[in-house]
Amino acid sequence: MTDWTDVAAVEDVPDEDVLGVVADGLRIALFRLEGEIFALHDLCSHGQAFLSDGFVEDGCVECPLHQGLIDIRTGAARSAPITEAVRSFPTRVIGDRVEVGL
Amino acid sequence: MILAADGRVVIVGAGQAGAWVARTLRDEGFTGEVTLIGAEAYHPYERPPLSKDVLKGADAATTGALLTAGQAQALGITCLLSQTVTAIDRAMRQVTCVSGQTLPYDVLFLTTGSRPRPLPWPEGEGAERLHGLRTRDDALRLRSALDGAQSLAVIGGGLIGLEVAATARQSGLEVTVIEAGPRLCARSLPPVASDWLADLHRQNGVSLRMGETVAGVQSDGLGVTLTLGDGATLRVDQVLVGIGILPETGLAQSAGLTLNDGIVVDAEGRTSDPAIFAAGDATRQPCPMGAAPLRQETWANAQAQGIGAARAALGLAPTRVKLPWFWSDQYAANIQVLGRPDLAATCIEQTAPTADTASWRMLDAAGTLVGAVAVNAPRALRDVRKEMEKARAAKQA
Ligand SMILES: Cc1cc2nc3c(=O)[nH]c(=O)nc-3n(C[C@H](O)[C@H](O)[C@H](O)COP(=O)(O)OP(=O)(O)OC[C@H]3O[C@@H](n4cnc5c(N)ncnc54)[C@H](O)[C@@H]3O)c2cc1C
Ligand code: FES
C-alpha cells in the first residue's frame, strides 16, 4: 500500500517547470508536463545538485551543474554524465493538493 | 573506417574520454572486444573532485567513479590497469604495452589526456614538499601533506592552483598564490571575471602576488624557501605547482600521426589515420564557433568528444558538437564559462555583480556574442548558450 504525503498545492507546481518541496525530510522535485504532475528525488545522481534548480525541456530536466539530462516521467538517465536513474515517486491529485507516494 | 560488429577496439588512456568511448560503444550496441588500457592503478574516475571534495577528505576510491570494476565487467569492457602503451604499429594494427604484451585492433582510440607542465627547476632534496595535481595519487599525496601543514604557496594563478588555494584556505592554511602574469586565469577567463575572482580570493584571505615570478625553490627538512623574481623570499610548508598542462602526445608522435600542439582531429575525433580516433585533452579540434582550431582542457569536452568519436567509429550520425564549456568550484562560487574567452574584446554585465553572483556576456571585436561567464547563475549561462546555438543554427541553415 502506498503511503501518500501531501506536499504542495496543485497551482504551485509551475507548468513545464519545477518546484522543490520537502516531504518527510526528503527533498522532492515536482514537475508538471502537459498538465500531469511527476515527482523525482531532488538530487542529481551524478553530484551535489538539486534538480529543482534545473531546467525543464522536452520531457527532461537538465542538471544545473553539468548539463546531464534526466527523464522527468521515469527518472531514467537520458544523457552523460548521468548513468544512474534518479528515484521517481508516484503522484496523485486530491482536490487542489498534490500528494506523493513515498 | 567503420567498425564491424565483431571488431576489436583498443582504447589507450582510461580517463574521462576513454571511459566515455567504452561506455558509448556498448550503449550503442557494439558487441566486439573492447579493451581499455590505463597507466594509473584505478578504474576511470572524474578528476574535478580531486582539487575539491577529495582534497577536503572525501573518499577518493568512490568519489567521481566513471566506470567501476563491476560496471566494466557487466558491460564486457576489459580494463588493463597499471599498464602503459609504449608503441603503436599502424601497419600491423597493434599496440605494445610496457609489459611486452601486444594487442591487435581494428579501431584504436587515443585518449591519453595531458600531464602537468613540469617545474622548470631541478627536483632534488625536499621534492616531497613540491606537488603537482593531475591524478588521484597526486591528490592523496597532497592531502596528506596539507594535513598538519600551516602554509601553502601555489605557483600559478590558473584554475587548478586557485581551486587548491580555496580548499586549503577552507582548511585554515595560510595561502599565497604567485602568478607571473597581471591577472588570474588569463587563458580561461576575460579580465572582468579575473578581477572578480581575485577579489573573492582576497576576501577569503589569500595573499595574491601578481606579476611575480619564482626564481628558485629550495627545500629542507622543515620547509621550502621560494626565491621570487624581485629577490624576496617566501618560506612555506608545502608548494603546489599549477603552471599549465601539456597534451600527452608522445605515442601519437612516434606513430607519425599529424600533430599541432595536440593530436589533430576532425569534429568527430578522426586522426590522420582512418583506423585511429582521439579524444580529450590530448587533441586539437575544429572550433564549433568557426574560429581557429583549439585544444580544450575540460571535463565536458573529454566526455563529449569521447562519445562523438565512439559514434563516428560505429558509423552513426554525428550529434551536434557543443560549444566549449567548463566550470570551476572555488569556495561557494560555481563559475561556469561558455564559448571562447580568448576571443572576447568586451564584456557586458548581465546582472550587477555581487559578492556571490555575477554574469557577463562576452563579445568579440566585431560585437558578436562569443560566450559568457556566470558565477552561481546557471540560468544566465544557459540563456546565452541557447542564444548562441540559435545563431549558429541560423548561420548553418
Ligand atoms: C585536479 C583537476 C581538477 C579539474 N577540475 C575541472 C573542473 O572543475 N571542470 C572542468 O571542466 N575540468 C576540470 N578538470 C579537467 C578535466 O579533468 C580534464 O579535462 C579531463 O580529465 C580530460 O580527460 P582525458 O580523458 O582527455 O584525460 P585524462 O582524464 O587525463 O585521462 C588520460 C589517462 O590516460 C592515461 N595514459 C596516458 N598515456 C598513456 C599510455 N601511453 N598508456 C596507458 N595510459 C595512458 C593517463 O594515465 C590518464 O589516466 C580538472 C582536472 C584536474 C587534474
Ligand atoms: S551534478 Fe548533475 S550532472 Fe553533475
- Radius of gyration over C-alpha positions of chain B, nearest whole angstrom: 22 Å
Question: What is the CATH third-level topology name of chain A?
Answer: Rieske Iron-sulfur Protein
User: What's the CATH topology label of the largest domain in chain B?
Assistant: FAD/NAD(P)-binding domain
Major sheet summary line of chain B: 5 strands, parallel
Q: How many DSSP H or I helices of chain A?
A: 0
| CATH class assignment of the largest domain in chain B | Alpha Beta
The amount of helix of chain A comes to under 10%
Unreliable residue runs of chain A: none
The CATH level-2 architecture of the largest domain in chain B is identified as 3-Layer(bba) Sandwich
On the 0-100 scale, what is the average pLDDT of chain A? 96
Distinct compounds present: flavin-adenine dinucleotide, FE2/S2 (inorganic) cluster
Percent of residues of chain B in beta strands? 25-35%
What Rg of chain A is obtained from the alpha carbons, in whole angstroms? 13 Å
Order of helices and strands of chain A: EEEEEEEEEEE
DSSP, total strands of chain A: 11
CATH superfamily of chain A: Rieske [2Fe-2S] iron-sulphur domain
Give the averaged pLDDT of chain B, no decimals: 95
The geometry of chain A reads as globular
- Structural domain count of chain B: 3
Q: Please identify which CATH superfamily of the largest domain in chain B we are dealing with.
A: FAD/NAD(P)-binding domain
What does this 3D model show about the protein?
Chain A: Its cofactor is [2Fe-2S] cluster. Chain A: Keywords: 2Fe-2S, Iron, Iron-sulfur, Metal-binding. Chain A: Belongs to the bacterial ring-hydroxylating dioxygenase ferredoxin component family. The complex is a heterodimer of chains A (102) and B (397). Chain A has 102 residues and is mainly β. Chain A has strands at residues 4-9, 18-23, 26-33, 36-41, 55-57, 60-62, 69-71, 77-79, 88-89, 91-94, 97-101. In chain A, 0% of the residues lie in helices and 48% in strands. A 4-stranded antiparallel sheet of chain A has the order 2-3-4-9, with no helix packed on it. A 4-stranded antiparallel sheet of chain A has the order 5-6-7-8, with no helix packed on it. A 3-stranded antiparallel sheet of chain A has the order 1-11-10, with no helix packed on it. In chain A, a hairpin with a 2-residue loop joins β3 (26-33) and β4 (36-41). Chain A is globular. A 5-stranded parallel sheet of chain B has the order 3-2-1-7-19. In chain B, strands 9-16-10-11-12 form a 5-stranded parallel sheet, covered by helices on one side. Chain B has a 5-stranded antiparallel sheet with strand order 21-22-25-24-23. In chain B, β1, α1 (16-27) and β2 form a beta-alpha-beta unit. The interface between A and B is medium-sized, with 10 and 14 residues. Bound molecules: flavin-adenine dinucleotide and FE2/S2 (inorganic) cluster. Residues 12-18, 37-40, 47-48, 50-51, 84-85, 111-114, 133-134, 160, 248, 251, 280-282, 297-300, 302, 326-328 of chain B line the site of flavin-adenine dinucleotide.
